[in-house]
């Protein structure tokens, strides 16, 4: 779970993208590094919007403009185990015709304890329950908070087809963008992924270039990976233990902020103008925080850490970078 | 994907016999299974559905017409299905065999009842090893069966997709579905060539106050589950999946295979297509 930053440089529909320019700048800005292409990567994003939100506001009977709601399907070749679905939280409570009376948790003496356990230690314990509300996000975006879900790759396209087939009154497929021939390089402590973003639905056109910058240098967060493996093997290193119990969510935030500075510094050095940046996007870091909760929960309860399931070793992997991609690729039209 | 189906009603007294007949026909032992089935209903903001655009005077906007058409499109109930083991039920002592041998779990044997009462004094829900956070789920969408098919099988559009484990409700809510209720399906499965045979019945959960608005995090005892059909009868479902439903040739072959099975089982049960409206999944 590395710390990453994503930049998007928009281009005019019929112009070429900034990709060539960026590659050139990388070469000239880091003359000491050999720019060797390490491999290729691909990306696909399908953007859906709430259908009612597409009506002109003047024609609706209720005049107050509602916040647009989005559902974004993202698949990344470097996280090939699962696809990402990022959906705006429901703006209102679901309508319960039969159960209008709200459930009173006090009515069942046994359930609050269970729910407490589920909300606390159990959040990360669900190896596949990749649902995370992003809470502190009132900073930049004017859209409602979004919910990240990861699904196995086999069901990624089935679900998309389901929403286009059976959910037309509330979801409308707006566009599909792809990166087909992305390349990546290692430059110092960074891994840089570059690619041309092309729109393939509803029309073919160029959208711009995308750059993902991944910090691969030393990081506090990396120690979490080590902790997990040592836990599983039952060879818990006490030294790691101490550092982990001292590691709080605020430390994760600080780590992200510090690494964001490094990534920004890197980007400034490349010096390409007019880019849209997504580093500290809403909900970023929750991949790490959930991992943290999971490890601590396993320690506190004394229970074993839920081992990787055979279908997907870590359903949370890549949700941070997926958030960043979806933030910059959420085009209005 | 398409699904072709035939159904038959199986009275309780015939159940054990039919299990043996099916085991003989398919040359396999019945695979006993339990499925939690959560029903979700598509919802949209009340009021928005009526946001019609007057007499549509700006005809230039075909886009607007498209959006309006989409707004009035069909909405559906959909199910989220999770397999459970017999050991997931509160008193894990019940084995598959015991569940089979006792076709009428409404009358639990008195010993279990006493034990239950003892547990009730400690906590209202008996505990089991069931871990809701590890429960796997899949979305099962079934369209209303196709109308006006001359063929004598039920055919409908279907989609099945695996979902993340654990609490699926927040995601489903965000996607536009709200939780309605849940039930349990208990049954035996057989595979006969390309046909899946399911001899099953629906069980209802005991009503626990406060648990109606979300899926249960704990399972009750199997004895506490009451069959939906009071007589305890079962449904035999023969189903077949067709990848490309638009291909008339494969659809025809598939129906013929089902008809072949119908002929083979003719002396035991009468497989027939279901009433279309009884399988209606549309939200009205």
Automatic annotation (TrEMBL), chain A:
What does UniProt give as GO cellular component?
mediator complex
The scientific name of the source species is Penicillium cosmopolitanum
Q: Which UniProt keywords apply?
A: Activator, Nucleus, Transcription, Transcription regulation
Biased composition of type Polar residues is found at: 56-65
Q: Name one Pfam family in it.
A: Med20
Described purpose of this protein according to its UniProt entry: Component of the Mediator complex, a coactivator involved in the regulated transcription of nearly all RNA polymerase II-dependent genes. Mediator functions as a bridge to convey information from gene-specific regulatory proteins to the basal RNA polymerase II transcription machinery. Mediator is recruited to promoters by direct interactions with regulatory proteins and serves as a scaffold for the assembly of a functional preinitiation complex with RNA polymerase II and the general transcription factors.
Q: Which cell locations does it reside in?
A: Nucleus
Which molecular function terms from Gene Ontology are attached? Answer: transcription coregulator activity
List where Gly residues composition bias occurs.
115-127
Protein name listed in UniProt: Mediator of RNA polymerase II transcription subunit 20
Region annotation (Disordered) ranges: 49-68, 88-138, 299-318
Biased amino acid composition, Low complexity: 100-114
Automatic annotation (TrEMBL), chain B:
Keyword Transcription: yes or no? Answer: yes
- Keywords from the UniProt entry: Activator, Nucleus, Transcription, Transcription regulation
Annotated TM spans? none
| Location (main, coarse) | nucleus
Q: GO MF annotations for this entry?
A: transcription coregulator activity
Subcellular location, in the record's words?
Answer: Nucleus
Q: Name one GO cellular component term.
A: mediator complex
The record's region (Disordered) falls at 96-124
Name the Pfam families for this protein: Med18
Q: Which GO terms describe its biological process?
A: regulation of transcription by RNA polymerase II; termination of RNA polymerase II transcription
Give the quaternary structure. Answer: Component of the Mediator complex.
Q: What does this protein do?
A: Component of the Mediator complex, a coactivator involved in the regulated transcription of nearly all RNA polymerase II-dependent genes. Mediator functions as a bridge to convey information from gene-specific regulatory proteins to the basal RNA polymerase II transcription machinery. Mediator is recruited to promoters by direct interactions with regulatory proteins and serves as a scaffold for the assembly of a functional preinitiation complex with RNA polymerase II and the general transcription factors.
Q: Which family does it belong to?
A: Belongs to the Mediator complex subunit 18 family.
Quote the protein name from its UniProt record. Mediator of RNA polymerase II transcription subunit 18
């Amino acid at each position: 779970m590395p710390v990453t930053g994503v930049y998007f440089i928009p281009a005019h529909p019929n112009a070429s993208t900034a990709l060539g320019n960026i590659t050139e700048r990388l070469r000239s800005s880091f003359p000491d590094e050999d720019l060797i292409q390490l491999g290729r990567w691909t990306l696909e994003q399908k953007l859906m919007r709430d259908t009612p939100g597409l009506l002109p506001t003047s024609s609706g009977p209720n005049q107050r403009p509602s916040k647009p709601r989005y559902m974004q399907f993202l698949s990344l070749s470097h996280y090939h185990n699962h696809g990402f679905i990022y959906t705006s939280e429901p703006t209102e409570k679901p309508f319960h015709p039969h159960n209008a009376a709200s459930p009173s948790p006090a009515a069942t003496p046994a359930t609050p304890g269970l729910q407490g356990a589920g909300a606390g230690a159990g959040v990360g314990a669900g190896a596949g329950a990749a649902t995370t509300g992003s809470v502190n996000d009132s900073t930049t975006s004017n859209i409602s908070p979004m919910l990240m879900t990861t699904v196995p790759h086999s069901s990624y396209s089935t679900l998309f087809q389901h929403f286009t087939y059976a959910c037309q009154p509330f979801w409308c497929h707006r566009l599909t963008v792809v990166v087909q021939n992305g390349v990546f390089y290692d430059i110092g402590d960074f891994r840089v992924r570059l690619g041309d973003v092309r729109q393939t639905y509803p029309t073919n056109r160029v959208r711009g270039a995308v750059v993902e910058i991944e910090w691969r240098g030393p990081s506090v967060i990396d120690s979490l990976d080590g902790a997990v493996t040592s836990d599983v093997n039952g060879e818990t290193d006490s030294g790691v233990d101490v550092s982990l119990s001292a590691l709080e969510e605020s430390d994760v935030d600080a780590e992200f902020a510090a690494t964001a500075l490094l990534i920004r510094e890197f980007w400034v050095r490349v010096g390409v103008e007019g880019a849209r940046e997504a580093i500290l996007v809403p909900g970023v870091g929750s991949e790490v925080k959930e991992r943290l909760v999971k490890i601590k929960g396993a320690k506190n309860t004394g229970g074993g850490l839920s081992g990787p399931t055979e279908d997907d070793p870590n359903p949370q992997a890549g949700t941070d970078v997926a958030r960043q991609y979806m933030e910059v690729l959420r085009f209005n039209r | 994907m398409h699904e072709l189906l035939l159904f038959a009603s199986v009275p309780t007294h015939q159940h054990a016999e039919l299990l043996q007949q099916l085991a003989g026909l398919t040359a396999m032992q019945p695979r006993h299974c339990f499925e939690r089935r959560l029903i979700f209903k598509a919802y949209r903001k009340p009021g928005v559905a009526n946001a019609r655009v007057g007499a549509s005077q700006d005809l230039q906007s075909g886009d607007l017409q498209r959006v309006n058409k989409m707004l009035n499109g069909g909405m559906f109930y959909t199910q989220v299905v999770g397999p459970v083991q017999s050991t997931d039920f509160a008193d894990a002592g019940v084995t598959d065999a015991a569940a089979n041998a006792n076709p009428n779990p409404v009358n639990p044997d008195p010993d279990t009842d006493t034990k239950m009462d003892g547990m009730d004094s400690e906590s209202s829900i008996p505990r089991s090893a069931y871990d809701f956070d590890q429960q796997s789920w899949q979305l099962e969408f079934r369209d209303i069966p196709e109308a006006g098919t001359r063929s004598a099988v039920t055919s409908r559009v279907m989609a099945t997709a695996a979902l993340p484990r654990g609490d699926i409700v927040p995601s489903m809510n965000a996607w536009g579905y709200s939780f309605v209720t849940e039930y349990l399906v208990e049954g035996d499965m057989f595979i006969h060539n390309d046909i899946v045979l399911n001899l099953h019945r629906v069980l209802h959960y005991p009503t626990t106050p406060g648990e109606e608005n979300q899926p249960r995090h704990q399972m009750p005892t199997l004895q506490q589950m009451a069959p939906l059909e009071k007589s305890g009868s079962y449904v035999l479902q023969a189903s077949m999946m067709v990848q490309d439903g638009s291909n008339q040739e494969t659809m025809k072959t598939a129906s013929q295979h089902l008809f072949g099975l119908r002929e083979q089982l003719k002396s035991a049960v009468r497989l027939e297509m279901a009433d279309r409206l009884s399988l209606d999944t549309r939200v009205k």
